[in-house]
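Design review, sub-item: ligand-bound model
Attendees: FS, YL, KQ
YL presented the inputs for the zinc ion complex:
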Amino acid sequence: MSVNQQAHTGPPYGQPQPGYQGYQQPAYGGQPLPGVPQSQYGAYNGPMPGYQQPVPPQGYFPPLGFPSKGSPVSLNSDTSSLAPNFIGSSRAPPTSGAPPAASGASLPSGHLAYSQFGHGDVQNGIPASAAPMQRPPASQPFLPGSAPTPVSQTSTFQQYGPPPASVQQLSNHMAGMTIGSTTASAPPPAGLGYGPPTSIPPVSGSFSTTGSGLYTPYTASQGPPPTSVSQGLPLAQPPFPGQPVSTQRLPTQVPGFAPPPSSTGIGPSSYLPTTGAPRPPTMPGPPLPGQTIAGPPASQPNHVSSPPPPSTMSGPHPGPPMSGLHGPPPPTHPPQPGYQMQQNGSFGQVRGPQPNYGGAYPGTPNYGSQPGPPPPPKRLDPDSIPSPQLNELPPQQKPRHRIDPDAIPSPIQVIEDDRSNRGSEPFVTGVRGQVPPLVTTNFLVKDQGNASPRYIRCTSYNIPCTSDMAKQSQVPLAAVIKPLATLPPEETLPYLVDHGESGPVRCNRCKAYMCPFMQFIEGGRRFQCCFCSCVTEVPPHYFQHLDHTGKRVDFYDRPELSLGSYEFLATVDYCKNNKFPSPPAFIFMIDVSYNAVKSGLVRLICEELKSLLDYLPREGNMEESAIRVGFVTYNKVLHFYNVKSSLAQPQMMVVSDVADMFVPLLDGFLVNVNESRTVIASLLDQIPEMFADTRETETVFAPVIQAGLEALKAAECAGKLFIFHTSLPIAEAPGKLKNRDDKKLINTDKEKTLFQPQTSFYNNLAKDCVAQGCCVDLFLFPNQYLDVATLGVVTYQTGGSIYKYAYFQLETDQDRFLNDLRRDVQKEVGFDAVMRVRTSTGIRATDFFGAFYMSNTTDVEMAGLDCDKTITVEFKHDDKLSEDSGALLQCALLYTSCTGQRRLRIHNLSLNCCTQLADLYRNCETDTLINYLAKYAYRGVLSSPVKTVRDALINQCAQILACYRKNCASPSSAGQLILPECMKLLPVYLNCVLKSDVLQPGPEVTTDDRAYIRQLVTSMDVAETNVFFYPRLLPLTKADVDSDCLPAAIRNSEERLSKGDIYLLENGLNIFVWVGVNVQQGLIQNLFGVSSFSQISNALSTLPVLENPFSKKVRFIVDMLQVQRSRYMKLIIVKQEDKLEMLFKHFLVEDKSLSGGASYVDFLCHMHKEIRQLLS
Ligand SMILES: [Zn+2]
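KQ shared the predicted structure:
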């Protein structure tokens, strides 16, 4: 976890970390300290001399009582004093110098010389004509001279046989012994149910024999296809091409909220601004007496097919007031073909247009033209399943409110509307401040100058011009950035631009990289920075004439001038120690203690690695991966293996002195897979045999990481450790842990300690790992508490991934584990990464959330950054913004590719700025807002009582909604809950965050589960947090077996379930298949292959493969969902009224939860109360 996420440890922002050697801040900045090696990233980032750090933000402080962030003072630590020397030493802008005609020639051998972009577009990847890929330098991976000398260490070459724990130690002596297959001591464990790999069911997307071998999450069947509901919908177009479509987003009024008794005295005048902020001049007049605002139907406003005339669009409130809030929908409202119209996001009684609807949209004259008949029955919406058992529910689960659940905003409806309205057209990024489709909508992106929403999503695409406005709204300004996101095959990967020796063109002052928003002036001889306004000479080799519009004539030939995302090939200035990096290495480190062996895990891993090693990450048409591999096994001691290709058999070396870890061999530890194939295969065959009879139960952990780190140091490369670990490391060693689990701490002030590491040892280790580019991926197989909060520290701070398989059983868990492992090994990953986000003057990045390390206030460092990891960045004002120039973000990620190439990936995004709050509220994205709020809260629990964190969340959201009500909505009765259209799901989603296991654990949730979830969420992208907090619930029995479509999702509430149906619920980690007690026997037979409900086994971890359409369809759906997620989800069969149903009900997030979480309806009432209090 990052330093700034642990207020209890580490110094405040901007302070160099004690003991942190790798990225000394001064070195970073270019000012060498005495005794500190030269700048490792001499050329990267760093402000110019004279560049002043922005002043502290004046507004928008976190809610009181939520002291989870660094103090404002430390946030503003000024690092500019480091800048001058940084610039002076190594950052002279390339204002002159030879044109890079022979750009590639100067690269060291082994580094590909990519052609100049203008000579042919080079994508990320090797062009077909490229030189043969660099071979892994197997002949020189280690520098023996620099190797640690093991003379004082206890180590042995050991012939395997007896458990290593009982091996006699040979001090000060290393004896090499050959591990011969004839010495195998034991047959494979019997009775474990372990099958050969060939019996493993095929997995989705992995091991493709074609293509690059990289995991490809997007397949032809990928993505939520149009559901059956939306199929019948006419595909709507955005109303005004080229204009932000969100201008039509309108407020949502939630009916059914009768004015509470206390509110009777509150009249519209109470809602006049009390802060002195003027009411937006564009506000429409107050409604006529008796009228209340509901806005036009919500299913229409987002992106209707027939736009209203522009005149109604100009105000923030095109929706006219309508009266008769509780009036029934007129029966004459024409339903769309194939779609039972549900208006306002399933707003029950006001689902349809209201009588007296004044006709804001002249094009829709039928609206409200006649009074409606008596109210129709509830739940007319298609996603509502009649609920025969509703009356059988215990009293407390019956609706206690007169609020119809169908009358409150429905996530399902919002998702469906966005799919219908925005799923058919590509999202073209040429327009500033354009709100992208929702993450749940399947759409293509065309880069025309702004980064794809797959790379960056924002909480709002129109940000307040002033800090006062931002503070008033309380809407956090944040971007969720996924720099290496995987794109669907239809979209173009970022182009790789090579400027040769001179490197990328950058602003002289703020060091921003050339991008489409830079303004060329003086005939093209200079350019003005779009971030800081500084004027910089165009280097001669980069000069180009301008056309009559002032655009460079090579505009479309250069990705950095015309696209939102692209890459630069980095020069040696961007490399550690001014040396091009070696290709990275993967080290597999396997726990071989008793539990790991007995469960069959060790054998499973070894079998899998035999084939998996052929699928290490590659690029383009490389024949083989440049990544080298190494192997370690361990319990209380560590065993290193020499798998040099020249050996007939692998050799083992044991290091039993774990107090001062070293790597006992250099030559032969990290090898090329193809060259050492035979020796590696032999080793993987023998490891399970060697430890088959082990009785060693204790393990070490920190020394394992140290060993991997030392090996990478010796090899002078970055890399990744894959650690497979089973238990709390209680063996005597550095980083030894004790069991400190204590659920009694829940709901006390000490609860936060459950999320904190129990020792700072791992924080220090993490710093060393980041400095080396040593990323740690952790696969945990616990049978009891193993302290994820502590074991995960290094993984978290190095940008690694954690996977947890509690009570691992081969039969039920091997598919999930193997799929995760395959994906993890194959996925795209950058090493030794540093990310900086630059912004235009007026705002700046102030806070960061994610799996990384920070040694200063601006640079996010990650030993490894893979395609699934996101970093959420919060911005605050330090000056005014202008509506004219908008606001710009530029995210620059410097990293080493899997081929060992140093690159810069640049993402640019331009946002609008507003002086009217209504514009802010119309351009928000609630899914991204929830991503930010969840990460903010999950960090808060490290330093604050959970209750404080929950209260702060509620308070902030109430303020957001109250500000809207006060400043943007028309005055109306206090009893009306009026939500901004773009935020109408904020209450339901916020309630899901509040009810999550981290913030409100149920009795079955373990401390490790909570720490694990906390870490996972912190790196999630918006799509992942969306489905994690509001799971997807699909009625399988409604699926059309003849199409590839998913059935239409329904809302997460028990009353939506029918006893006669089968449902699937997924949240990104689990898939539940819920079977009602009255499901037809034929369906049960078809899906489970048994003849009755009672015979269904809930021990199944996969659905049986049966040859009938229903079975095929359901398995197809499960496979499709698995491919979409970054982790393989655990399948759990739940029978209605079975004890497992409690677990399932936990995910029906609109209902009251067993752990005390409020139902959606109750929470909405609560939020309404909070808002009213703020307004009164
Ligand atoms: Zn600049």
